[in-house]
Amino acid sequence: MEPIDNVVGSKSPTAVAINSASKAGEWIKSRLGMYKQLDTKLSPQDLVTDVDKGAELMIRKLILTHFPDHDILGEEGVPPGAAASEAALAKARSSEYLWIVDPVDGTTNFVHGFPFFCVSIALAHRGEVIVGVIYDPLRDELFVAEKGKGAYVHGNPTRVSEDAELSGSVVAVGFNPDRQFALPTNMKGINALALQTRSIRAGGSAALHLAYVAAGRLSGYYEVGLNAWDVAAGALLVKESGGIVTDTTGNPYDLGVRHLVATNGKIHGELLQSLKDAGATGMQ
Ligand code: IPD
Ligand code: CA
Ligand code: CA
């Protein structure tokens, strides 16, 4: 974290990330069941509300107040679809300081009143994530990670689980809204994992799944078809809690990874092999 503390003023970027996630989270919670506008993006399953947009605006303003020279990659500022998302990341990733924001991760849950969604904010320095904050406003759970300094939930260190085998693990999966490519691929993985794990979960928030892997509540998470803002903060949380984050073929995580496996480390190889055998890596 050395260079960043000196960039602008006295406020640390971690404090700004926490403050922004908390303020946006409180507001999102206050709007639960009271969104004014519901639109679809790429498919009828890909939802966005005025609350997603309002929360992103709020977070952008708070970040830029303290770090006016930094760049921001926020979900609601990018046109829908994998190609647009990849293009936006390609343009932004060379930024010296890039904030990566998912204002509401779990919008379908938010819309339906299913209480599992969060705010996810990461800061990358020259393409490497150095701060990750995930806030679940309904449980008032704040997950914070700083590169090289560990990860915490409300000040208590997080640690990945000890499960050593898939058969004794609970693993999260995702039902991606892209029904052309991602969902069919995920379904192959889900079919395999349902039989090989103790049980699978699909809570509907990639970022919270990652925070739960970091906290040892899940031993792994797999999904094909994610975007940088779904993963950046959570990936740092998992790594700083002793876990491993790669793509579905085992390459180390970087901001461009869309097909993701995050685990406690101990079940990583077994999970990757299972996806390979099931033809569920999403890689050609
Ligand atoms: C979605 C959620 C969901 C995952 C999707 C994401 P959003 O993000 O993380 O769990 O399965 O792939 O797009 O749209 O709610 O921000
Ligand atoms: Ca998301
Ligand atoms: Ca979102």
From TrEMBL:
Catalytic activity as recorded in UniProt: a myo-inositol phosphate + H2O = myo-inositol + phosphate
EC number: 3.1.3.25
Keywords from the named record: Hydrolase, Magnesium, Metal-binding
Top-level taxonomic group: Bacteria
Keyword Transferase belongs to the record: no
CDD domains: IMPase
PROSITE patterns assigned: IMP_1, IMP_2
Swiss-Prot/TrEMBL cofactor(s): Mg(2+)
Family: Belongs to the inositol monophosphatase superfamily.
Protein name: Inositol-1-monophosphatase
Gene: hisN
